[in-house]
Amino acid sequence: MWIKICANTTLDDAQLAAQLGADAVGFVFAPSARRVTPAEVARITPHLPANVERVGVFHALDAHEIAHIAQEAGLNAVQLHGGVRLALIRQLHKIFSGKIKLIQTLHWHVDAGEASAVAIAQHLREIAASGLIDRVLIDSKVGAASGGTGISFDWNAARTVLAEAGPGLRIIVAGGLRPQNVAQAIQGLNPWGVDVASGVESIPGRKSPEKLAAFIHNARKAKTSAS
Q1: Which of 180, 175, 185 minimizes the C-alpha distance to 211?
Q2: How do residues 37-79 score in pLDDT, each as one tens digit?
């Protein structure tokens, strides 16, 4: 079970996530209350273990701008928001030459009902057919806010959609996850990974050590039980 702790704003929080066993830590460069600058992240990433992925979350930027920020901040993975843009993904592949991994975010519109399931399924087919990217993160979208909302999407509706994604895609579930429900999400959706931000915070932008430890423990335990 791949576990990402996202929306880190301090060195202490990122290091704690790594120490507790997270596989990846995320930093938000997209508009958000938890937004950080490349310079801020550049002061954090050199102090993280080499085996922990350092993921930057981006929205609606061009390939060269993303690449510049990734290099300055010391990232080794990039998470794309703002819709599936295959041309952008191709450009990033060319620029990164395999040195920086890519994750595509798809937003499950919580208020859209069945239309969200249809749209997600279509995007998954498009991504799989392109062969350009193998990790897809499904996050909740509520109104204009995407990410960090603390609200889950419809896991029952998602179960069939994600099961049909095919073996070529690694599905990461996000949106409304917290220590109390991460096991249920894993057992119900059988994702490759999970991602959490607000669900392990004490206040916006700062992590709770207790919630972090419980989330990672419960996610690992749930995957072991399901295996």
Answers
A1: 180
A2: 999 999 999 999 999 999 999 997 899 999 999 999 999 999 9
Residue with tokens 């399924």: 121
The question of whether 13 is a catalytic residue gets the answer no
What is 149-193 written as a DSSP string?
------HHHHHHHHHTS-TT-EEEE-SS--TTTHHHHHHHH--SE
Under a CB-based contact definition with an 8 Å cutoff, are residues 195 and 6 in contact? Answer: yes
User: Could you tell me the two tokens for 109?
Assistant: 């519109």
| Helix (H), strand (E) at residue 145 | strand 145-146
Lookup: tokens for 193:
């990974």
Q: State the catalytic residue, choosing from 23, 62, 134, 139.
A: 139
pTM of the predicted structure, to 2 decimals: 0.94
Integer Rg of the chain from CA: 16
φ, ψ at 42 (rounded to 5°): -65, -20
Residue 188 contacts by C-beta under 8 Å, 6 or more apart in sequence?
155, 156, 159
**139 catalytic per annotation:** yes
